[in-house]
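Retry 2 of 3 after timeout on previous attempt. Resubmitting structure tokens to design endpoint.
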């Protein structure tokens, strides 16, 4: 019998997992600086939440959800994204009764039944933020800058913000009617998919990659020319705030999001480094979402970023994350009596915060030294019968080859000094 991980999933093994830890650490630190707090929602929710919160006519809900009936006969779905759960939680826990806005972030696995391909998995991971209960355009700029700063902190360069406003429920329907009319006039030049979309979801025609469709779209009416006064002001203000903190952006009227609850700001962060523009992640305002899933008029804005996708960008730009993969000290042991003493020392060293390792395979001194090398030990020490008798041993700096004799009783304090100050 042989087991494999399910199709579309993968094991994140060391040292790869250290990159994940690094990204998570940077995320926790940076998001905390922006005063976002972590929220952890369940991995699964009632299916209806996603049907309402993502929309029935999206690819996710139509084709990609992991949905099953539990033993109680309830329809359950593994979360395909994070926003619906966060807003569900905000409403359910009556967080709106507290001081606002509420600023949350999350990191965790998401599940979509997609055809596995490079960088795309059925269990994948997202980190995201949601700022709820404020419609202040400064918050839109904060969210966008937070995304950019995160990528910059990880070392990514050549990033471009594409920015648009998708209007609101008072101005967008009029625009959509105009767009429909235009698309119908040019119906013959559209791909079959887009012919279908004219009625179902005409905004999605705008991001079709088909060459014929692109030609039609070029002359299509632009939403930025059809915004109502409020939406126009909001959009201008977002741009003003981005200017204030020197975030470059390109207004892209073709950047839209298909669902009705999306309002105002929509943005995507693109990676320009390889010539072809590649979206790293996107986000935007969803002032209609709380209404959709909880009959409450509460604005919100956020973004979600795929960690697998982010790792690909880092790889493409040749960025090595500064991950910690060394050992402070490797204790080489000769003989059983020394092993007992070394094991006690090991415990003390570790409790003092020193990353320490010992041999567990009763190997020769030569093999143990090879292990020390493989584990990138900064220092090694040999403990055998002689050392026990003298109650002292020699610490060796593996890089410089320098050595220092220490009393075994002083080993921990000596090592602490060495690691802190790198004295020799
Ligand atoms: Zn509007
Ligand atoms: Zn098309």
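Retry 2 succeeded. Sequence:
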């Amino acid at each position: 019998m042989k087991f494999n991980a399910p199709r579309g999933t993968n094991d994140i093994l060391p040292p790869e997992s250290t990159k994940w830890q690094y990204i998570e650490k940077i995320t926790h630190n940076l998001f905390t600086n922006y005063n976002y707090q972590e929220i952890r929602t369940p991995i699964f929710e009632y299916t209806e939440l996603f049907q309402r919160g993502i929309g029935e006519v999206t690819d996710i809900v139509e084709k990609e959800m992991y949905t099953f009936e539990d033993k109680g006969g309830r329809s359950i779905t593994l979360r395909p994204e994070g926003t619906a759960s966060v807003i569900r939680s905000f409403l359910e826990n009556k967080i709106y009764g507290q001081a606002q806005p509420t600023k949350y972030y999350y990191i965790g696995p998401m599940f979509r039944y997609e055809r596995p391909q490079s960088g795309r998995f059925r269990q994948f991971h997202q980190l995201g933020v949601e700022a709820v209960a404020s419609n202040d355009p400064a918050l839109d700029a904060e969210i966008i800058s937070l995304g950019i700063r995160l990528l910059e902190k990880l070392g990514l360069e050549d990033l471009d913000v594409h920015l648009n406003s998708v209007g609101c429920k008072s101005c967008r329907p009029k625009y959509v009617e105009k767009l429909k009319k235009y698309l119908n006039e040019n119906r013959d030049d559209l791909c079959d998919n887009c012919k279908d979309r004219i009625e179902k979801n005409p905004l999605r025609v705008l991001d079709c990659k088909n060459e014929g469709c692109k030609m039609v779209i070029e002359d299509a009416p632009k939403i930025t020319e059809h915004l109502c006064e409020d939406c126009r002001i909001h959009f201008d203000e977002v741009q003003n705030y981005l200017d204030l903190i020197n975030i470059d952006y390109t207004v892209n009227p073709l950047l839209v999001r298909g669902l009705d609850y999306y309002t105002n700001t929509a943005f995507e962060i693109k990676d320009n480094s390889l010539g072809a523009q590649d979206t790293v992640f996107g986000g935007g305002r969803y002032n209609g979402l709380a209404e959709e899933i909880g009959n409450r008029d509460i604005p919100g804005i956020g973004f979600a970023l795929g960690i697998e996708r982010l790792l690909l960008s880092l790889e493409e730009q040749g960025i090595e994350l500064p991950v910690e993969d060394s050992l402070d000290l490797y204790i080489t042991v000769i003989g059983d009596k020394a092993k007992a003493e070394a094991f006690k020392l090991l415990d003390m060293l570790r409790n003092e915060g020193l990353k320490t390792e010992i041999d567990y395979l009763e190997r020769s001194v030569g093999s143990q030294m090879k292990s020390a090398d493989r584990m990138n030990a900064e220092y090694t020490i040999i403990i055998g019968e002689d050392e026990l008798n003298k109650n002292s041993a020699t610490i060796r700096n593996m890089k410089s080859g320098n050595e220092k004799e220490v009393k075994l009783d002083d080993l921990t304090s000596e090592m602490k000094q060495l690691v802190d100050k790198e004295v020799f």
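Attempt log closed. The longest strand covers residues 102-111.
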